[in-house]
Amino acid sequence: MREAVAKPRVLLVEDDRELAGMLGELLADEGYETEAAHDGQRGLHLGLTGRYDVMVIDRRLPVLDGLELLRQLRARAVITRVLVLSALGDVADRVAGLDAGADDYLVKPFEAEELLARLRALARRDFEGAECLPLGAAALDLQRHEVVLPRGERITLSGREFELLRTLAQRPKAIHPRAALRTRVFADSTGESIVDTYVYYLRRKLGRDVVRTVHGLGYQIGAV
Amino acid sequence: MREAVAKPRVLLVEDDRELAGMLGELLADEGYETEAAHDGQRGLHLGLTGRYDVMVIDRRLPVLDGLELLRQLRARAVITRVLVLSALGDVADRVAGLDAGADDYLVKPFEAEELLARLRALARRDFEGAECLPLGAAALDLQRHEVVLPRGERITLSGREFELLRTLAQRPKAIHPRAALRTRVFADSTGESIVDTYVYYLRRKLGRDVVRTVHGLGYQIGAV
DNA sequence: CGCGCTTCTGAGGCTTTTCTGAGATCTCCG
DNA sequence: CGGAGATCTCAGAAAAGCCTCAGAAGCGCG
User: Fold this and answer.
1) Which of B212, B2, B128, B73 minimizes the C-alpha distance to A174?
2) CA dihedral over A11, A14, A17, A23, signed as positive or negative
3) Helices (H), A124-193
4) Whole-prediction pTM value?
5) Nucleotide nearest to A189 (CA to C1')
6) What is the Cα–Cα distance from B60 to B193, expressed in whole angstroms?
7) Using an 8 Å Cβ cutoff, are A39 and A63 in contact?
8) Per-residue pLDDT of chain A in tens (224 residues, 90 and over written 9)
9) Which of A58, A97, A80 has its CA nearest to residue A184?
10) How far apart are CA A206 and CA A204, in angstroms?
11) pLDDT tens, position by position, B80-131
12) Bases of chain C within 7 A of a CB of the protein
């Protein structure tokens, strides 16, 4: 269960342990909760099973290369924002990194300030406390955990209902597989049908149409 | 929001008309639909009233500075992705740009390739990997398992329908023998006529003409 | 401690998808 | 033209996926 004011969670995949330690401290000071992996294989495992708001991935990694790790994550529908760190700084390298699915690419050596600013830019959308996420004609009030209907009526959501709807609303029109939602919103030990149940709760409160089922793939909001 | 078939729309705010012209062409070549503003005031007006998928804003602008423009857009809840271009390349400048609300910050002079890659990375976020296979006038959305018709209408396919159509669409104009399709898309234990049945389903949903029968040889799409 | 709210489980029923098979229709070629 | 084989169409059974919901268990508060 997350705290009321959850810290943004970062996955740091970096084989240089000294650098990893320094970055870990830096991120902790900025209020991030960091988890670290020191090779690509471990990074892949954590990335697939863990719940992160942003990932920092070194390009040169043992066992599984950073870009290959990234491709595999993307291939398995992990849409978390990723910043790639690399000593390879040619334009071609940067283009390759971005096209492999990176959201940003920072060349070593870099200044801590810039890394932090770029992470803020990536994580900003997910942690803008004061704002609402659009939800079709309605909106999701991120502060008060309420859905605001067009007429101004407000419907309060429970913690899990809110987390689920927020996760869906962060990527409207994307299809969110059950397994991904279960990993992100619920504990891994929960039953297989927990997502179904909470979708049912949301639909009961907000109407049938808020969440669309895509048979065999998952759930989706904001479909046209 | 952008339709899958429509071109991504870019707002370009750049006072150097020569550079603006070059960028406009570059973006047009890449399939973007560009609208240009040459000062901050005009950029603000367009940004507030127009619908764009991504904005490219020069930092040094007449009338209204680029960062100030960005702040005003953000203050009025414009959440479009923004890439800031600037000749100011110090870390402090970059941090200032990102913290003003930019999603990315590219220092002049830059390579066209990198700008395009970074724009792709930004545009990707909103229509998360809307990769499509061409399908005559329509397209096959690989993420959503949907066929997107020219007018933007979407037809959802079931898992097997999608696999079959994708297999055909991967090599358009090639003739795919029944046996090959049966092996690739269905279990080996299925009956001989399973492919026929699913071709029938596809035709029923999408129209007679999507799949052509080549008597005695197999099926084909995208025939001339 | 008891009450109300939330979370989670699991079972039963419903819907969609997948697959089979059989008759109708078409194509090729002698 | 006519027949053999290929293809199309489709109803319905079986399987898989999804929805609904009651109730148990947990949590927070007075």
Assistant:
1) B128
2) negative
3) 159-170, 178-185
4) 0.66
5) C8
6) 66
7) yes
8) 333 345 788 999 999 999 999 999 999 999 999 999 999 999 999 998 887 889 999 999 999 999 999 999 887 767 789 999 999 999 999 999 999 999 999 999 999 999 999 999 998 766 554 467 778 778 888 888 999 887 778 999 999 999 999 999 988 888 999 999 999 899 888 999 999 999 999 999 999 999 999 999 999 998 76
9) A80
10) 6
11) 899 999 999 999 999 999 999 999 999 999 999 999 999 999 987 765 556 7
12) 5-11, 16-22, 27-28
Is B90 part of the contact surface with chain A (CB cutoff 8 Å)? no
Backbone dihedral angles phi then psi of residue B136, each to the nearest 5 degrees: 65, -130
Residues across chain B: 224
CA-based nearest residue in chain A for residue B103: A121
Closest to A124 in 3D by CA, of B120, B100, B83 = B100
Distance from C-alpha of B192 to C-alpha of B179, rounded to nearest angstrom: 8
Q: Is A98 on the interface with B (CB under 8 A)?
A: yes
Q: Which residue has the tokens 């008309």?
A: B17
Beta-carbon contacts of B36 under 8 Å, excluding residues fewer than 6 positions away, are B11, B12, B13, B14, B20, B24
- The type of residue at B110 is F
Residue labelled with tokens 């309060």: A156
Residue with tokens 């507030």: B48
In a mutagenesis test of the B interface, which of A76, A81, A95 is the best target, namely the one with the most B β-carbons within 10 Å?
Answer: A95
Query: Are residues A65 and A59 in contact, defined by beta-carbon separation less than 8 angstroms?
Result: yes
Query: At A102, is the secondary structure helix, strand, or coil?
Result: coil
Closest Cα in chain A to B156: A214
Which residue do the tokens 């009025």 mark?
B76
Identify the pLDDT of residue A67. Answer: 96
